[in-house]
From TrEMBL:
Gene assigned in the entry: dxr
Domain called 1-deoxy-D-xylulose 5-phosphate reductoisomerase C-terminal: residue spans: 142-225
EC number(s) reported in the record: 1.1.1.267
A GO MF label: 1-deoxy-D-xylulose-5-phosphate reductoisomerase activity
EC category: oxidoreductase
Residue numbers binding Mn(2+): 146, 148, 217
Annotated residues for binding of NADPH: 10-13, 36-38, 120, 122, 201
HAMAP family per UniProt: DXP_reductoisom (MF_00183)
Domain 1-deoxy-D-xylulose 5-phosphate reductoisomerase N-terminal as annotated: residue spans: 4-128
Domain called DXP reductoisomerase C-terminal: residue spans: 257-374
Protein name as annotated: 1-deoxy-D-xylulose 5-phosphate reductoisomerase
Record keywords, A-Z: Isoprene biosynthesis, Magnesium, Manganese, Metal-binding, NADP, Oxidoreductase
Residues engaged in binding 1-deoxy-D-xylulose 5-phosphate: 121, 147-148, 172, 195, 208, 213-214, 217
Family: Belongs to the DXR family.
Length: 381
């Protein structure tokens, strides 16, 4: 029985994680959960799973939960998430919050020697060196939940890291894959949220449309698999059936395939190195699909991917700025303050004005993150 702390329980990954836990009550217990503001969903989960500890984003949300009749142990904010990520009774921490707000909990979980199942890719983008150094120091495995990185992890299983030559990340192309850059001028939030293959939270769905999601994933792969940027390729693959590939030194290529269903990588991160049945997931039927499509990824069509490669290659606080500027710009877009194409121009402006700091510590990263958000907000005026 593994006791799980689930951060971001009310979100897309969080809810799918509870689905996996529900299906395997002999293997997993939801010991603690954290969420932001969705009190209704949070209460449903509390009533079903009866966690020992609950964490919410703010005192205001805590009051709302008390008004809904919750009488158990409750903490708030980033400190609360840190508390349940490091709690001595917890075995596994699933980090499924959105954004760099998950960083201190990821670091705390590693330092407390927890098994870490990581969906929160932003923590690796903003501070990959801190996360990976801590994981090495504490001999903690970080099990990726992100579908591409889970695929790579599975392809590398039992292989020698030295013999892996190249990582090939697949990208669906996102909501606007069939539009030219000219056609992007008038797109709406609703259009952007219409992902062709996956049902996900709003921020990552917009990231898929700008291709920043793949940019963040390139940086995530760099850190997780210690792979130089020149050895990480991205190709467009419309069907999201091949979740990613690894080319080895002998030119043999391993791929991991499956229907697009996040419960598969979530469960794998919880059961690794074993596997459990996952009956409710649709079997992959390649005969029904018939044809898989592949296309070169254009850095001109998708400038956010170029910006991510450039920031990743410079390193240091450049990726902190990339991530914070993106989080802020996407938030402005989702709130109707800027257009879709302004997202990429705000990010580029923030990167251009930044003087990189190499090997920053946690405090510096947090400062740069805050300053970048304020800077990007000021661009609106
Ligand atoms: N969805 C997917 O299929 C995939 C997601 N990912 C990654 O997983 C992470 C989560 O994505 P997704 O589930 O789609 O996102 P959602 O927006 O659906 O969920 C985010 C979760 O984080 C919570 N949250 C947000 N801010 C705070 C905060 N300050 N304090 C506490 N909780 C907070 C939200 O709470 P509430 O809603 O209650 O406010 C919610 O539970 C992201 O990093 C994303 O890139 C990676 C691969 C696939
Ligand atoms: C499911 C998942 O892992 C997402 O990150 C997914 O990759 C989004 O799809 P694209 O970024 O390929 O559009
Ligand atoms: Mn992904």
């Amino acid at each position: 029985m593994k006791k799980i702390s689930l951060l971001g329980a009310t979100g897309s990954i969080g809810v799918q994680t509870t689905d996996v836990i529900r299906k395997h009550p002999q293997s997993f217990q939801l010991y603690a959960l954290a969420f932001g503001r969705n009190v209704e969903k949070g209460m449903q989960l509390i009533q079903e799973f009866q966690p020992a500890i609950v964490v919410v984003q703010s005192e205001q949300v805590k009051d709302a939960l008390l008004q809904h009749g919750y009488r158990g142990k409750i903490y708030t904010g980033i400190d609360g998430m840190y508390e349940i990520a490091t709690h001595p009774d917890v075995d596994v921490v699933v980090n499924a919050v959105m954004g760099s707000v998950g960083l201190s909990s990821t670091l705390g979980a590693i330092e407390a020697n927890k098994q870490v199942a990581l969906a929160n890719k932003e923590t690796l983008v903003t501070a990959g060196h801190l996360v990976m150094d801590a994981a090495k120091k504490h001999n903690v495995s970080i099990l990726p939940i992100d579908s591409e990185h889970s695929a790579i992890y599975q392809c590398l299983n039992g292989e020698s890291k030295k013999e892996a030559h190249k990582i090939i990340l697949t990208a669906s192309g996102g909501s606007f894959r069939d539009k030219s850059r000219e056609e992007l001028a008038g797109v709406t939030v609703e259009d952007a949220l219409n992902h062709p293959n996956w049902s996900m939270g709003a921020k990552i769905t917009v990231d898929s449309a700008t291709m920043m999601n793949k940019g963040l994933e390139v940086i995530e792969a760099h850190w997780l698999f210690d792979m130089p940027y020149d050895h990480i390729d991205v190709i467009q693959h419309r069907e999201s059936v091949i979740h990613s590939m690894v080319e080895f030194v002998d030119k043999s290529v391993m791929a991991q395939l499956g229907t697009p269903d996040m419960r598969v990588p979530i469960q794998y991160a919880l059961t690794y190195p074993k596997r459990l049945e996952l009956n409710q997931t649709k079997e992959l039927n390649l005969v029904d699909i018939g044809t898989l499509h592949f296309q070169e990824m254009s850095l001109e069509r998708f400038p956010c991917l170029r910006l991510a490669y450039e920031a990743g290659r410079i390193g240091g606080t450049m990726t902190t700025v990339l991530n914070a500027a993106n989080e802020q710009a996407v938030d402005l877009f989702l709130n109707g303050k800027i257009s879709f194409l302004t997202i990429e121009s705000f990010i580029e402006r923030a990167l251009e004005s930044h003087h990189v700091i190499h090997t920053p510590n946690l405090e510096t990263i947090q400062q740069v993150d805050e300053q970048t958000r304020a800077l990007v907000k000021s661009y609106v005026n």
